[in-house]
Amino acid sequence: MPIFRNLVPLALAACLTVVSGAALSAGEPDPIDALTERDQDFARGRQAAQAKNWDAAIKSLHIAEQRDGRNAEIQNMLGYSYRNAGELDIAFKHYQRALQIDPRHRWAHEYIGEAYLMAKNPAKAEEHLAALKRICPTVCEERDDLMKKISAYRAGNK
Questions:
Q1: 28 — pLDDT class (breaks 50, 70, 90)
Q2: pLDDT (tens digit, 9 = 90+) per residue, 117-138?
Q3: Which of 13, 37, 69, 150 is deepest in the core (most CB within 10 A)?
Q4: Is 119 exposed, middle or buried (0-12, 13-18, 19+ CB in 10 A)?
């Protein structure tokens, strides 16, 4: 029986990792990389966003969206591009759409939280931080990044 008692914590940890979506399985392609490979417009939009060319990013991503409007990655990247272009209202719509499609989308939770901080609504940012804590209770870059940004926001607004 002692052998089985030692296996229970390991099995629980394995289940939490799978349920939390905290890590991709070995050999599983990153969804953003896979989308970038199969959709040239998404790839152009992503490249433009990385270059901070928000207008070009938005244009290419909308073309990708016309073909695949139910893709959370496209919606999230549109939200990211609109947010960085200063169009918060439109960014919120795309982030919310991404989260309707995939309620566990970590980047969408992080980025909409950042948008709420830009809109001076830290309480809503905290809601998305709480969601990230539920989604990935162990290692989670998105959770940690949003937590730092909320802390910095609160420290700067005392």
A1: low
A2: 999 999 999 999 999 999 999 9
A3: 150
A4: middle
Mean pLDDT of the chain: 87
Q: Name the band, by pLDDT with cuts 50, 70 and 90, for residue 4.
A: very low
- CB neighbour class for 91 (10 Å; exposed up to 12, middle 13-18, buried from 19): buried
Burial-class residue 125 by CB neighbours within 10 Å (0-12, 13-18, 19+).
buried
What separation in angstroms does the CA of 45 have from each of 31, 51, 60, 99, 154? Answer: 15, 10, 5, 20, 33
Is residue 110 within 8 Å of residue 135, measured between CB atoms? no
Q: Which domains does the chain have, with CATH numbers?
A: 29-156 (1.25.40.10)
Q: For residues 18 and 54, what is the distance between their CA atoms, to the nearest angstrom?
A: 35
